[in-house]
Amino acid sequence: MCGIVGYVGGQQAYPIIVKGLHRLEYRGYDSAGIAITTDKQLNIYKQAGKVSDLEDFVKDKNVKGNIGIGHTRWATHGVPNQLNAHPHKSGDSNLALIHNGIIENYDSLKKALIKRGHVFESETDTEVLVHLIEEIKKNEKVNLFEAVRLALNEVIGAYAILVIDKENNEEIIAARKGSPLVIGIGKGEYFVASDATPIVEYTRNVVYLEDEQIARINKKEALEIKTISNIIKTPYIDELELSLEAIEKEGFEHFMLKEIFEQPKCILDTMRGRINAKTGEITLGGILDYEKKILNAERIIIVACGTSWHAGLIGEYLFEDLARISVEVEYASEFRYRNPIITEKDVVLAISQSGETADTMAALELAKQKGATILGICNVVGSSIPRLTDAGSYTHAGPEIGVASTKAFTTQVVVLTLMALRIAKEKGTLTNTEYRQIITELELIPKKVEKVLELDDLIKEIAAEFKDATNFLYLGRGYNFPVALEGALKLKEISYIHAEGYPAAEMKHGPIALIDEHMPIVVLATRKGNYEKVVSNIQEVKARGGRLIAIVTEGDKTVKELADYCIEIPACFEELMPLLSIIPLQLLSYHIAVMRNCNVDQPRNLAKSVTVE
Ligand code: G6P
Fold first, then answer.
1. Counting CB atoms within 10 angstroms of each CB, which of 258, 319, 407, 521 has the fewest?
2. How far away, in angstroms, is 81 Cα from ligand 1 center?
3. Topology adopted by domain 3-245
4. What is the per-residue pLDDT for 270?
5. β-strands 391-394, 373-378 pairing
6. What pTM value is reported for the model?
């Protein structure tokens, strides 16, 4: 993670970089720093905390200059203090470098550099890299571009880096491997950042740097790109489709709330153009060529992390239930290290909002090596996973900025539903009538989500009642079980209340011991599925004095009599219920977090995009 921004051109660099850092703060907010050069003078300012702390710090400092780089950090090596904050400088204080990623062999490089007389100020792996570049530049008598290239040949690990030299106020050197980097091309100016959000208001012409590529970004010259093995590449200029509104709060108090309320629209966008209104035919253009592979797959292995893993669990129910294909859902971080059995007949499907999660990428790479077909469901267009996979489908949810994932989750579930339905139709595991009924129901989901969102005031009242609880239990069965896991994760992430999600029936094998009159229990008890069985589980909770918040189907009477609070959501098919039942849980955790004065959009210790393992 970590966010990086750079600017070189005719404008003042500082305001552009700070604005960019605010946009990238979702990637990490342990510390922030900036390096600006002017008249062969290098000014570096850094501060523990958020970008706003950096802004306060530099108020009376000289930030003048037309070239600079900035960084917002999610700490990996070294505590998040001022010393470990980026940028880091070379021993002679000529070079400044920012880095997103991990240099795995930094320890051996550092020891060797210390032996050769280098002195380090921080505990970071990044500082090692800038010293290495400095040494190569001096010893080999090469320019910065070449020195960076040679240094990267000695590095094992992942990186997106920007380097500037106070002797050259016209040039930034950028390189990437495993962490994203986008270069925006303006007139006589360049912007470079971890994603396109800091760039979008200045130019729509961008170049996505590829892995192991290094760029010389000189304001007076055309962009020059080569690989770290010294092969020259012609830059491919893409046009940005991102809109400025999509990355602003538009009147909402937090990005997370905006993103929760955007879900009806996002779900529509995910389905747009993929369901033929007349025939009900589903077309997922991105995987068309690989449909046969999926149809004939012996199993589908879904790899993901966090919320995307929960979406994967719903995918398991959908593919097995509708398309009768066996599915395994794996934490990418476990899968990649446990010598999994993968064959050419397997389809490995990665789910990732960011398309950059290091463990998910590594799991895919492993599956690729073993000959499996690799597919992806991602939100960020042009990110690393879509580039790596054989084929895939975008969720089209638009930028998700709140660290706790909401609209990414529901749109991932929509894509999984479309995939499962398409395969079911091809395989004939659903009758035509069943297929058409589910499609009709799916098309009604955006309107039904809108109805659930109307319950916001009621959910706020419930939040006020439970905001001081120290533990929560979330229970669900069948399709609602992954929803219970996701609801608990949302609460943990943003309100710091301990919460566990459990299959409702499994509760009696342990968590039931936790239940007393202080324990709130959120139960997903919507109609169909295992409703009667969930009602029995509710009775078990009630008998032990637990305080019940139930998510039920409109008109429910049985659970209403048992629960302390009921949230009634519209009826829908069991297979699609997660798309509705997750909404009250997102709102509940949002309101509890706000009432506890937590930083909803940037919860402590977390980052949106985890590009380290
Ligand atoms: C981080 C984020 C989560 C996200 C997970 C996986 O932990 O904070 O919200 O679910 O990474 O990210 P991905 O981008 O792969 O979906």
1. 258
2. 25
3. Glutamine Phosphoribosylpyrophosphate, subunit 1, domain 1 (3.60.20)
4. 96
5. parallel
6. 0.86
